[in-house]
Design goal:
The complex is a heterodimer.
Chain A: E1 3-8, E2 11-16, H1 23-30, E3 50-52, E4 55-57, E5 72-74, H2 79-82, H3 89-96, H4 106-120, H5 126-130, H6 141-154
Parallel strand pairs in A: 1-5
Antiparallel strand pairs in A: 1-2, 3-4, 3-5
Helix pairs in contact in A: 3-6
Chain B: E1 13-18, E2 24-29, H1 52-60, E3 68-71, E4 77-81, H2 90-102, E5 109-113, H3 131-158, E6 166-168, E7 171-173, E8 179-181, H4 182-186, E9 195-200, H5 219-224, E10 239-244, E11 252-256, H6 259-263, E12 268-274, E13 277-282, H7 285-294, E14 297-300, H8 309-318, E15 332-340, E16 343-344, E17 352-357, E18 362-366, H9 371-382, E19 389-393, H10 407-419, E20 423-426, H11 429-434, E21 438-439, E22 442-451, E23 454-465, H12 472-481, H13 491-499, E24 508-516, H14 530-547, H15 552-559, H16 563-575, E25 586-595, E26 598-607, H17 610-613, E27 625-634, H18 641-660, E28 666-667, E29 670-671, E30 690-695, H19 711-726, E31 732-733
Parallel strand pairs in B: 4-5, 10-20, 15-31, 18-19, 23-24, 27-30
Antiparallel strand pairs in B: 1-2, 1-9, 2-3, 3-4, 6-7, 7-8, 10-13, 11-14, 12-13, 15-22, 16-21, 17-18, 17-20, 22-23, 25-26, 26-27, 28-29
Helix pairs in contact in B: 2-3, 9-10, 14-19, 18-19
Classes of the chains: A alpha+beta, B alpha+beta.
């Protein structure tokens, strides 16, 4: 069985598993990191959104063999550390606006939001918000939009 | 919006209990103070006098004393709530209620979800938006009993009369300034014999939290990824498990041709046939997906074999109950039939459960809104005594009606038994859309007659594919039905007549339900019948207004029956500037709704111009855009206005989806949609950039239902706005269901789930 080594949330990990197991299952089933959620398994709902070297990606659609030893995966659990704080400004904004309802999609929403703000350089337009594909079946979208605008000003 | 107004509950004395326990455990007893029995009318407008909320309350009341609040020696209070939290915010609202009555800070009250407790009979069902209505007073009484008991113990400790003591934030202070904490006296306040005590609830003016906006108690866990759902639990030996399901609805396994080969695939440990398909268990879900796809199975026919949307519509129209044979002389009529497509009530967390079934006992973890029925059913299916099955209720990732049933819990138990091992069972998203429960397809025929300035008759014949109420609600109803004047009403008709009403003075009003075809896996979807029934009604109301030369808002004002409905309507008209000039192709829409002891009105603005409709969204459906929404809600007593706002917002997103984009197509015995990019629930590109929710001040002093109230008026308002903007009254919903081009390539039905992509980095 091949061994895969990479960095997750600042720590080096090694996992023995076949090359084609998707990263989501390596994180959840083998490493016990449960922040990234399953919502579709085909890169549609975005509930599993994490960061690969600082940019959003969906681990349900990436075989573990595509992750190299120098690659760094950040899940929601490791997000605060990237801001050097107990909570990332996006999480703070989420709390201030009480965005979450059931909470299931929220790790993915927050990770996607952080990546969006990073990619837009800090200003977020309605068109940017319209481009987010993450599903929230509880429908807390209006608060998500407000929180991202709010956090963009703090990031 | 945070004031409590004058409509306070009169202070009443309640009987409670201090239970024999090592620390203070207090419960409520409501039987002796029960309100006057509601008169049950036999007329079709039953729901205005005795509605679904009353029924669920009366079902819960006899066991309300079994609901207890405990104060611990660390000064915290806890309550194992016999309800399911699925995002609706009840853990927060109940914590606020207890904290207030007990004089504790909010963060010192812990709410957990109780395991199945069969002794609660009909008092462990989460549905009908009834939790706050049924739990509010028992929780307050229990907390008040505990508080008085703590004060009595503190009086002895501090050598002062209990009536001279003050309790604040968990600290009891004597007139001379000496104090003890709740934790200090929790043990002393305990009793070894269960004792009945009389207690008075605080006046509303003394409540500090109830009625103020509070953030969710689990918000930090949610945003840090620490909130645990069923698939995040670490149950020893419970490996990922999935089921290979049939290509048509409820098809059956005839034979499996390659079980041994699949069992030897990487990571796979077990393959077993269960009633719903062929289960595989393995080291990772990814390997289970591969194994499910590799299985070669011969399938028997399902329960909707060969049927498509058009066949069901024909069945529905054929089963429509007749309208009255004669109409008032000289009157004019409007007669419309609306068709509503099947829609999936799938939450974002798919059906899932952990099960560990042994020879002599079983343990199951899942989000269950009817855990007692689940426990009974699972015990029966496993051949175990009921008390050997433990059902743990886990936080759910949404429900929308799905978790009224326990399909995954039962299936997981059967798989665990078949394999003889613990399993962590999860449905694939495609399973959830295609074999999971749906909101039934229905038609709603409305005929209204009018003469001069009066509406003389309003008749509605709602015809639906059979709605499955075979969960805990069914059990409640079977018990409660005996008390109703017409004990032979079917469950569906009971729910229909207890939830539907026409809030307008429209002369002779007559709403009837008929249901056909039980071949589908159905269930209530958020707001049960109301979204469809209300949308049909409000569209006809707009047509009546137009035909009678009246403005849609003024028309509603003059026909609405009650002041609360009028108040929410007036508020959205005012905040939303009803009647403002709108560009061609854009319009406003308005709707009002009454249910769950609450009232809600919604005003939306929609843009149906080509620029909005023809927006290109990859693998999505843009369609017309709701650009603005205003909602006003009166739930009687808003316990947590911030949570209530969230629920209305969610209802609005559902309503927009149901009106414009969100459905599944039935084709040749199966549902075509298999992903979120096929069945278009509201996405960011459909969200109104401007949403306002107005929480009305308290009116009745009693919290009504909030979780579902927003769906029906939102759906109706969007439909009315669409009709006004386009000049055509839509007769089929959602609007894009009848499109000639699906807008996606359907996934195959064999294998039943799609391959995991590999291009996530490209």
């Amino acid at each position: 069985m091949p061994t895969h080594s990479f960095v997750v949330n600042g720590e080096r990990v090694s996992v023995d598993c076949p090359d084609d197991v998707r990263v989501l299952w390596v994180l959840r089933d083998l490493l016990g990191i449960h922040g990234p959620k399953y919502g579709c398994g085909i890169n549609v709902c975005k509930a599993c959104t994490c960061h690969l070297n600082g940019t959003a990606f969906n681990p349900c659609s990436v075989p573990v063999s595509a992750i190299g030893p120098d690659d760094e995966i950040t899940t929601i659990e490791g997000l605060p550390a990237t801001a050097g704080a107990d909570l990332h400004p996006m999480q703070e904004a989420w709390l201030d606006l009480d965005v979450a309802q059931c909470g299931y999609c929220q790790p993915g929403q927050i990770m996607a939001a952080v990546s969006l703000v990073r990619s837009t350089g800090g200003t977020v337009t309605d068109a940017d918000l319209d481009s987010i594909r993450n599903i929230c079946r509880c429908g807390t979208y209006p608060r998500i939009r407000e929180a991202i605008k709010d956090a963009a000003a703090r990031m | 919006m945070t004031g409590r107004g004058d409509a306070a509950i009169p202070r009443r004395r309640f009987l409670g209990y201090v239970l024999a326990a090592p620390t203070v455990v207090a419960g409520a007893q409501l039987l002796q103070v029960g309100r006057a029995a509601a008169v049950l009318p036999s007329a079709p407008s039953a729901s205005e006098l005795y509605d679904l909320s009353d029924l669920l309350n009366d079902a819960a009341e006899p066991t309300a004393h079994l609901i207890t609040v405990t104060v611990h020696e660390d000064g915290t209070a806890s309550f194992a709530m016999p309800r399911a939290e699925v995002g609706q915010g009840i853990t927060t609202a109940v914590a606020m209620t207890i904290a207030d009555e007990l004089d504790l800070p909010l963060d010192r009250v812990r709410i957990t979800l109780a395991d199945a407790r069969p002794e609660l009979l009909w008092n462990q069902l989460t549905g009908g938006s009834n939790t706050m209505h049924s739990i509010f007073t028992p929780a307050r009484v229990a907390a008040a009993v505990a508080r008085e008991r703590l004060l009595d113990a503190a009086a002895i400790e501090l050598g002062a009369l209990a009536s001279r003591l003050t309790a604040y934030q968990g600290v009891i202070t004597a007139p001379d300034g000496r104090s003890v904490t709740y934790g200090d006296v929790a043990g002393a306040a305990a009793t070894s014999t269960t004792t009945a005590v009389s207690v008075e609830l605080k006046p509303d003016s003394a409540l500090r939290l109830v009625g103020t906006p509070q953030s969710r108690v689990d918000a930090l866990e949610a945003v840090t990824g620490r909130k645990r759902f069923a698939m995040d639990l670490d149950v020893p030996g419970a490996l990922p498990t999935m089921v290979c399901r049939p290509p048509t609805i409820n098809g059956t396994v005839v034979s499996v041709h390659n079980a041994d080969a699949v069992r030897s695939m990487p990571g796979i440990t077990d393959v077993a046939v269960v009633p719903t398909g062929v289960a595989v268990r393995g080291a990772t879900f990814g390997q289970c997906i591969d194994a499910v796809r590799a299985l070669d199975v011969s399938w028997g026919p399902g329960t909707a074999e060969g049927k498509s949307d058009v066949d069901i519509e024909r069945e529905l129209i054929g089963a429509e109950l007749p309208l009255a044979p004669t109409l008032p002389l000289l009157s004019k009529t409007i007669d419309r039939r609306f068709t509503f497509a099947f829609a999936s009530n799938t939450p974002l967390e798919t059906n899932c459960a952990v099960a560990d079934v042994r020879a002599d006992r079983a343990e199951v973890w899942s989000s269950m809104k009817s855990p007692i029925v689940a426990q009974q059913t699972i015990a029966q299916a496993l051949g175990l005594p009921q008390d050997k099955v433990t059902c743990h209720v886990v936080d759910g990732g949404g429900s929308f009606g799905r978790h009224l049933f326990f399909d995954a819990a039962l299936e997981a138990a059967l798989v665990s038994k078949a394999m003889g091992k613990p399993v962590k069972l999860m449905w694939h998203r495609t399973d959830d859309f295609r074999q999971g429960r749906v909101h039934p397809m229905s038609t709603s025929r409305v005929r209204a007659s009018y003469l001069g300035s009066n509406v003389l008759t309003y008749e509605q014949r709602h015809t639906s594919v059979s709605t499955d109420f075979g969960h805990g609600l069914g059990e409640i109803l079977s018990a409660m039905l005996a008390d109703l004047p017409e004990g032979n009403l079917g469950y569906s008709q009971t729910v229909f007549s207890l939830s539907q009403n026409v809030p307008y003075n429209f002369g002779v009003v007559d709403q009837l339900l008929n249901e056909v075809d039980a071949g589908f896996n159905t269930g209530s979807m958020r707001n049960i019948y109301s979204p469809n029934v209300t949308t049909a009604r409000e569209l006809v109301v707009d047509e009546l207004a137009r035909a009678m030369g009246r403005d849609a808002y003024a028309f509603r004002r003059s026909f609405l029956k009650d002041a609360r409905a009028l108040a929410v309507l007036d508020r959205v008209a005012q905040v939303g500037r009803w009647g403002r000039a709108m560009a061609p192709g854009t319009a406003q829409g308005l709707a009002v709704h009454s249910e769950y002891k609450g009232r809600a009105a919604v005003l939306v603005e929609i843009d149906c111009r080509p620029g909005a409709v023809n927006r290109r969204v990859r693998d999505g459906f843009a369609g017309p855009r709701v650009t603005r929404a205003v909602c006003a809600v009166d739930v009687g007593l808003p316990v947590n206005p911030r949570g209530l706002e969230a629920q209305m917002m969610g209802g609005l997103m559902d309503g927009i989806g149901l009106a414009l984009t969100f459905s599944v197509h039935l084709d040749d015995g199966h549902f075509v949609e298999g992903s979120w990019d096929n069945s278009f629930y509201t996405r960011e590109w459909n969200v109104p950039p401007d949403v306002q929710v107005v929480v009305m001040p308290p009116t009745t002093g009693v919290p009504g239902g909030a979780g579902e109230l927003g769906v029906a008026p939102s759906f109706a308002a969007v439909a009315c706005a669409y009709a006004r903007a386009t000049g055509t009254v839509p007769l089929r919903f959602p609007i894009n269901h009848a499109r000639s081009d699906l807008g996606f390539d359907p996934l195959p039905t064999v294998p039943p789930i799609p391959a995991s992509p590999t291009d996530g980095l490209s």
